[in-house]
Write a structure and sequence with these properties.
This protein has 689 residues and is mainly beta. The protein has 6 domains: 91 residues, Immunoglobulin-like; 97 residues, Cadherins (Immunoglobulin-like, Sandwich), CATH 2.60.40; 103 residues, Sandwich (Immunoglobulin-like), CATH 2.60.40.60; 98 residues, Sandwich (Immunoglobulin-like), CATH 2.60.40.60; 103 residues, Cadherins (Immunoglobulin-like, Sandwich); 103 residues, Cadherins (Immunoglobulin-like). Helices cover 6% and strands 42% of the residues. The strands form 15 sheets. Strands 1-7-6-3 form a 4-stranded mixed sheet. Strands 8-14-13-10 form a 4-stranded mixed sheet, with no helix packed on it. The protein has a 4-stranded mixed sheet with strand order 16-23-22-19, with no helix packed on it. The C terminus is likely disordered. It is a single-pass type I membrane protein. Potential calcium-dependent cell-adhesion protein. May be involved in the establishment and maintenance of specific neuronal connections in the brain. One of its GO terms (cellular component) is plasma membrane.
């Protein structure tokens, strides 16, 4: 759907929009495709320059004549192109310009007010008219300066501003019998335009209190098509006077900007103030009515009050949807790609809201679906493969149902013929799959089953599966996995080692037995799950198995003194590689403790010179199930020398480590961490794909 906008004062022949560019076609092809412009409503406001592909203005537009007081003004066009048939909707919004000045229904307004009127008494004024909309419409009113009167502006239910003259100071007819004022209406355009009316107020030397409406502005709601004679409302008017001065008569107030159309639909009892319907009401004709009522007493001179009633109609579902078949293409090839347009369908419903919201339906078992092109227009498109050998044609019933209560529905049936072609390839249910298998599983363990389907029949639907050695791994993938060519189940060829390979990409091909054979591929990401099959390895101190590590510390070492630090690694990952350190229990309490996570051995109490060397067994245990462990024996001897420096006390090399195994284990640890990070990124990428 294309959308353009054009100001209402644009000259005929002006460019509205570049159709060829926005439709994505070459302008020289428009004439060959027999481009036609159809205006809704039959009025021609636009034309198309087929040579340039430009939408032009055919006549000068008058927004006020086209759309009246509507907040938005849009003209709807349809572009029809052939070879292939396409339908495009064009919406042109007519923008308002400030080309109208406000104007009052009468150039002079004559009002009357009694001299005993209390300050605060209101005199309603005629509303000015401005055909322009939005900010160009009536913005405000101004009243010439007056000692006795001021201007008040009320806003009624439909947003219209209603000026009123308010008495601010008591009147004295003997001093001034007539007041002359000027009322000015200003719009919100740029530059501002205005209109004026002369207001003449005669001061009457008569009775006391005017009739008062409570409230002065009210609202009533009733359903359309209610029986004639239905009570809409009863006006609540009071007059504090007595006798004839307090007797009120009611009548409709009709002015140029409030035409009396409502008088044909509503009746007003002059004595009781009851307003009833006197003709059927149709929401589709008008959704609301503004009714002005004059309440006048029988005093001399008579005083009057003014009531304003807004009657809003509630739409009922009294119109059935209408189906319009704009275009229909038959026959259609059976190899038509999904989304091929079969028909263009429009719907109409004169109701509003849910009552006018229409849903199109077709039978779910048909290989077609309805796609909303734009508002109230749908395309019937193919939604799956067509097979002429199974069905040479379809009776398609389109059913339009609105959302009202009770629902109304309409249906239309047409026959579509299928033209024969030959194609269909097998397809996997998913191009990417994920599987998990525990390391050390026995060869022949089932890993995953891929599934593919082929809508063909016979040998063309007989499928066989195979694994492709595509060079994605250094070693052929077939040395790790095999697949059952009939059912697509993938099995292991040998036991897998998580520490060696953490993830495999297994490309699988499915091929039918047709001639020529058609095929497709999918990739199964097989993630190897870690098993706690590696015990921790103590890399420092490095001692032969069955030997002890000897460490000397000063006899004067205080509590907290760092004796040494145990460093261990675990080839597993995750929880299986979380290590903790602890001392094996002995018969006597040791003056040492080991930090559970860091492996640091520290002095916990003061040492004695006479103590024999302490034999401390440190056990390193992982967090796997079952848990695996390693231990080292450390013999701690006391010496009488002064406090040693940290490197000497630990018996650590001060430069590079002498034990090449320590370097190797550190490298293994870094590589393991890098591999785990890579695997995590690969998993995230596979999930996203």
């Amino acid at each position: 759907q294309l959308r353009y906008s054009v100001p209402e004062d644009r000259e005929p022949g002006s460019s509205v929009g570049d159709l060829a560019k926005d439709l994505g076609v070459e302008s020289r092809s428009l004439a060959a495709r027999n481009l036609r412009l159809v205006s809704e409503g039959g009025q021609r406001h636009f034309q198309v320059d087929l040579a340039a592909g430009i939408l032009l203005l055919d006549s000068r537009l008058d927004r006020e004549a086209l759309c009246g007081q509507s907040h938005t003004c849009s003209l709807h066009l349809q572009l029809v192109m052939e070879n292939p048939l396409q339908l495009h909707r064009v919406e042109v919004e007519v923008l308002d310009v400030n080309d109208n000045a406000p104007q009052f229904p009468k150039p002079e307004v004559v009002l009357e007010i009694t001299e005993v009127a209390n300050p605060g008494t209101r005199l309603p004024l005629e509303v000015a008219e401005d055909p322009d909309m939005g900010s160009n419409s009536i913005s405000t009113y101004e009243l010439s300066p007056s000692e006795h009167f001021a201007l008040s502006i009320n806003v009624r239910g439909d947003g219209v501003k209603m000026p009123e003259i308010v008495l601010e100071k008591a009147l004295d007819r003997e001093k001034v019998a007539v007041h002359h004022l000027t009322l000015t209406a200003l719009d919100g355009g740029n530059p501002v335009k205005s209109g004026t009316a002369k207001v003449t107020i005669h001061i009457l030397d008569a009775n006391d209190n005017p009739p008062v409406c409570d409230p002065p502005i009210s609202k009533a709601r009733l359903e359309e098509n209610v029986p004639v004679g239905t009570l809409v409302t009863k006006l609540n008017v009071t007059d504090l006077d007595e006798g004839a001065n307090g007797e009120v008569e009611y009548s409709f107030k009709i002015s140029n900007n409030a035409p009396g159309k409502f008088t044909k639909l509503f009746s007003l009892d002059p004595r009781t103030g009851e307003i009833r319907t006197k003709a059927p009401l149709d929401y589709e004709e008008s959704s609301a009515y503004e009714i002005a009522v004059r309440a006048r007493d029988k005093g001399s001179p008579a005083m009057e009050g003014h009531c304003h009633l807004r009657v809003e109609l509630i739409d009922i579902n009294d119109n059935s949807p209408e189906i319009v078949l704009t275009s229909f293409s038959s026959p259609v090839q059976e190899d038509a790609t999904p989304g091929t347009v079969i028909a263009l369908i429009g719907v109409k419903d004169s109701d509003s809201g849910d009552n006018g919201r229409v849903h199109l339906q077709i039978a779910k078992e048909l290989p077609f679906k309805l796609v909303s092109s734009f508002k109230e227009h749908f395309s019937l498109v193919t939604n799956g493969p067509l097979d002429r050998e199974k069905a040479s044609g379809y009776n398609i019933t389109v059913r339009a149902v609105d959302s009202g209560f009770p629902q109304r529905a309409t249906q239309k049936t047409f026959y579509l013929r299928i033209a024969d072609v030959n194609d269909n390839a097998p397809n996997f249910s998913s191009p990417f799959d994920t599987a998990h298998i525990q390391e050390n599983s026995l060869p022949g363990t089932s890993v995953f089953s891929v599934s593919a389907s082929d809508p063909d029949e016979g040998s063309n639907a007989k499928l066989s599966y195979s694994i492709l050695d595509s060079g994605m791994q250094d070693v052929p993938i077939s040395t790790y996995f095999r697949i059952d060519q009939d059912n697509g189940t993938i099995y292991t060829v040998r036991a897998l080692d998580y520490e060696q390979d953490k993830v495999f990409q297994v490309p699988v091909e499915v091929k039918d037995a047709g001639s020529p054979a058609l095929s497709s591929t999918a990739v199964v990401h097989v993630f190897v799950l870690d098993e706690n099959d590696n015990a921790p390895t103590i890399v420092y101190p490095s001692v032969p198995k069955g030997s002890a590590f000897h460490q000397t510390i000063p006899v004067l070492a205080e509590p907290g003194y760092l004796v040494t630090k145990i460093v261990a690694v675990d080839a597993d990952s995750g929880h299986n590689a979380w290590l903790s350190y602890q001392l094996q229990e002995t018969a006597e309490a040791l003056p040492f403790q080991v930090e559970r996570r860091s492996g640091e051995i520290r002095v916990t109490q003061a040492l004695r010179e006479s103590e024999d060397p302490h034999r401390v067994v440190v056990e390193v245990r992982d967090n796997g199930t079952p848990s695996l462990s390693a231990s080292v024996l450390i013999v701690i001897s006391l010496e009488e020398n002064g406090v040693q420096d940290f490197a000497k006390s630990l018996d650590l090399p001060e430069s590079s480590p002498k034990d090449p195994n320590l370097t190797l284990y550190l490298i293994i640890s870094l590589v393991s961490i890098s591999l785990v990070s890579c695997v995590m990124f690969a998993v995230v990428a596979a999930r996203c794909l």
